[in-house]
Amino acid sequence: GEHLAAFRTQDGQAYVLDAYCPHLGANLAAGGRVVGSCIECPFHGWQFRGEDGKCTRIPYTEKVPDFARVRTWPSCEVNGMLLVWYHCEGVGPTWAVPEQHEIVTGEWVFRGQTEHFVDAHIQEIPENAADTAHLAFLHGPAILGGSDLRYTRSRLWDFMKHIWKAEWWPEPEPNEHCSRMLVQHTATIFGKRVSLMDLTVSARQVGPGLVFLIFEHAFLGHGIILQTVTPVEPLLQNVVHKIYYQKNMPAIIPKFILRAECIQ
Ligand code: FES
Ligand SMILES: [Fe+2]
């Protein structure tokens, strides 16, 4: 993995740098101090500019060598997240993360987040999004039973069935890095359709590690789950779900949706 230091300059711009100081290797993320548009190393006080990582000041000398710089990572702050671009061959960003209008305007507000560590390759998680065939079989019996196979088929939930209709397609240029899945969910209890459980979910795979799940419910309102997948090790992913939901809806609704989603 990579060790990074993220900081916000005094005028509010967020930057991401390599954590270790190129001087003698102190960790800028542990005790580094923000000075103007720079971060100051806690060891000997060298200051590095967020924008390009260049050392701009060494407290005990006038001359700052040109090679004194720390690696910077392309990053962006969008929808309440600070995202870092990673490319294994060092290619710069080829696409940008779209803003979700309702989050920016404050119409949808933050209602909680979950965090899991998943033993998988990062590719397996987006592949699962395209695998619409598993929805009805695996998630048919009972959503709230979760994904523990000892209980998903338990009789306890027999009275309730979930019906999924899903479509998946890749997006055309210039968004060929994205895909969409449209899911119509309905549920029956003792064989009767419960329209309260009707839910339309539009899932957009925005990039390999980022999904926007937009929910639409006839009277429980609209909202979004932002899912990020951050590789920690080659076969270990940190998966975070954050939910933003219509401000005028009681917080219990988005909390329920978030729980139902994240235990799948
Ligand atoms: S180790 Fe960072 S300034 Fe010396
Ligand atoms: Fe699933």
From TrEMBL:
This is cholesterol 7-desaturase. InterPro entries: Cholesterol_7-desaturase, KshA-like_C, Rieske_2Fe-2S, Rieske_2Fe-2S_sf. The lineage of its organism: Eukaryota, Metazoa, Chordata, Craniata, Vertebrata. Residues 1-84 form the Rieske domain. It is found in: Membrane. Its cofactor is Fe cation. Its main location: membrane. Transmembrane segments: none annotated. It comes from the Eukaryota. It comes from Tyto alba (Barn owl). Pathway: Steroid hormone biosynthesis; dafachronic acid biosynthesis; Hormone biosynthesis. Belongs to the cholesterol 7-desaturase family. It catalyses: cholesterol + NADPH + O2 + H(+) = 7-dehydrocholesterol + NADP(+) + 2 H2O; cholesterol + NADH + O2 + H(+) = 7-dehydrocholesterol + NAD(+) + 2 H2O. One of its GO terms (molecular function) is cholesterol 7-desaturase [NAD(P)H] activity. Its EC number is 1.14.19.21. One of its GO terms (cellular component) is membrane. One of its GO terms (biological process) is cholesterol metabolic process. Keywords: 2Fe-2S, Iron, Iron-sulfur, Membrane, Metal-binding, Oxidoreductase, Transmembrane, Transmembrane helix. Pfam families: KshA_C, Rieske.
